[in-house]
Design a protein that fits this description.
Number of helices: 24
Largest sheet: 7 strands, mixed
Membrane topology: Multi-pass membrane protein
Shape: elongated
Low-confidence stretches: 1-9, 83-122
Catalytic activity: Zn(2+)(in) + ATP + H2O = Zn(2+)(out) + ADP + phosphate + H(+)
Strand content: 15-25%
Subcellular location: Cell membrane
Radius of gyration: 33 Å
Distance between the termini: 60 Å
Bound molecules: adenosine-5'-triphosphate, zinc ion
Structural class: alpha+beta
Oligomer: single chain
Keywords: ATP-binding, Cell membrane, Membrane, Metal-binding, Nucleotide-binding, Phosphoprotein, Translocase, Transmembrane, Transmembrane helix
Organism: Aquamicrobium ahrensii
Number of strands: 26
Length: 743
Amino acid sequence: MTQPGTPDAGKAEALVFRVEGMDCASCAGTITTALGHLPGVSDINVSVTRERMALSLDAARTPVGAIEKAVRSLGFVPTLLDGKSDAAPPAATPHRHDHEHEHGLACAHDRAHGAPVASIKTETPWWRSVKSRHAAIGVVLVALSFAAEFFWPQSSRYVFSAATLVLVAPIAKRAFAAARLGAPFTIQMLMSIASIGALIIGAVEEAAVVVLLFLIGEVLEGLAAARARSGIKALGSLIPRTAMVEDGGNLHEVSTDQLAIGQTVVCRPGDRIPADGVVLAGISSVDESPMTGESVPVAKQEGSAVFAGSINHDASLRIRVERAPSDNTIARIIALVEDAQEARAPTERFIDRFSRLYMPAIVAFSALVAIVPPLAGFGTWDEWIYRGLALLLIGCPCALVISVPAAIASGLSAGARHGVLIKGGAVIETLAEAKTVAFDKTGTLTMGRPRVTDVVAADGDEARLIAIAAAIERESSHPLAAAIVDHANEAAASFIAGEDIRAIAGRGMEGRVDGREAFIGAPRFAAEAGGVSDDLAEAAAAFESKGKTVAVVVLDGAAIGLVAMRDEPRPDAGAGIAALRELGVDSVMLTGDNARTGNAIAARLGMQARAELLPQNKVEEIRRLAANGKVVMVGDGINDAPALAAASIGVAIGSGTDVAMETADAALMGSRITDVAGMIALSRATMRNIHQNVAIALGLKAVFLITTVTGLSGLWIAVLADTGATVLVTMNAMRLLAFRPGR
Ligand SMILES: Nc1ncnc2c1ncn2[C@@H]1O[C@H](COP(=O)(O)OP(=O)(O)OP(=O)(O)O)[C@@H](O)[C@H]1O
Ligand SMILES: [Zn+2]
């Protein structure tokens, strides 16, 4: 084969393949080991749940075609995903967010030697797959063999032997392909040795049935794996396939994939919105539960942002498309969850290491069982070889290997469907152990929309006080500033211009008004900036003990008045804290606000408060809390980013899509405090599920190890135990899909 003369030959390139047919989780291990022996191949990462294989390849040393050939020889169907043209066919997977783009795919090589490019097939229905056909042939051949036994008992052993050989041949072929590529320990190898060995010792019926059961088991495993995969794909199916685009007054239907930014689409009541965009006309209510998990419809009118996948309830909406299909919120959520499934949990890494040793250990043990007892004079050779062969079949670690990723994939999907995005297994493990949750106050526990409730001017001129305050606050992005400016506008306060205005982070604002030095900020800082009269200080304290935040206005070193503001707690904040307490998790409020206000609000919510914290103090506080165990920090990501980063797990919370979901370890799309407890409960449920799965997998192996050695069970049971455990573990993991966090 000629090497394509690409300029970057000799350098490694990242490639991503779709690989079909990986149901047994140890398949991933086989592929990794086998390809790892090829020159120029590195960084192999195989995901059974996503049917993906990523690797970096130096095409000068091994051509892409050789990779595909190797994977095919192992019994799987690889398809190179083209990163440049969108490989997904619109009908089958219209909204696949192919973030494979980010891996920088090459497509020059494969065109050169004719490998399939841009041809992701639709998923083969299971009854048409190679495995199902293989199993069907198996049923027919084994049935014929039993018929032959009935009619011609003398020749039946040859019929059974022939059937076994026909059925085991493709399995053995895969086994030898893997062995040649450096992966001798595969379930196919164990299966081939066991069935051919059984033929040799004369257990012909069993040999045939064992191969048949193995083939049926593979079909079942494939079915279970496909169901497990469908969890997150379901999110993608929320986007309609077509959209009505308005074009010069005419409406015509186009594929959602083809939508471009700036186009106008019309969404009728009852339909799902096809793209992220802005409402141009129409008043309706929209169910955004696919993004936020919140099924109470949200009112939309001209100027409102809407998201692809949400359901338009009442009336037609004209929407301007603001995001490309591959970039919309739901696509980003899907991509995040898919990436999260790749992030391996520590438990998973441990099990992977364990299972790499497990299979060779069982093979060695089987050999001992087959040889030692008869040598020592216990029983016959046939009897012990039979037990040794049956033991080989116990050596498949499939169920164990799939136990962690299956549970994590289900847990992540269950969360994502309710607006709880968790970025991987490691995050789940840590969340499950959380001891303390620290909450930012403003915008997290509270709505983040303070309103001015009281204005006190030392000289009685409240309008002027508000005008001065607004003159400075106009330049601030702080929510308190917005409240004061809003209030000034509502009260139609006269406009005063400020100069030289600057923010003093965590304290307030400074500047010049009417040629005088002005400061606005918390009373304790106002006291530093100048005199605060006893009357004003007393008034401030009274407001603060009611949970209000006070800003004092200082002019030329003397306080001239104050503005009190109230920021309402989120409606479910109290319930959210109570739910955490029920889980045995402590809640702490971290706030830059003063202690009286913080304590007043915290007391109402039933939690502790740490107040008057500058941003760096919040980080120190997180470190202090971490001495008692894992700390989760929940914040809106606006001025608490360092604290979010310092916590064991940083959780971003926000309404719908303003969430800083890409940066945090987890994101709550629905702005519900109750989701924090829901997320921890989901993580604990996922960990419980993992432990159950490991127990099922190891327990069944242990039981059948004993019954096999003692001769209580034979070949059939050993195969049933293997595939049965895999199916059981997958099914158990899928129970998590029904978990509803926070409800
Ligand atoms: N622009 C401003 N106007 C008035 N007061 C301010 C301003 N900026 C900060 N402050 C004062 O400084 C305090 C701390 O501000 P900071 O921004 O650190 O906390 P916050 O965002 O209000 O509260 P939290 O820490 O709960 O999010 C505020 O409570 C307020 O009293
Ligand atoms: Zn298996």
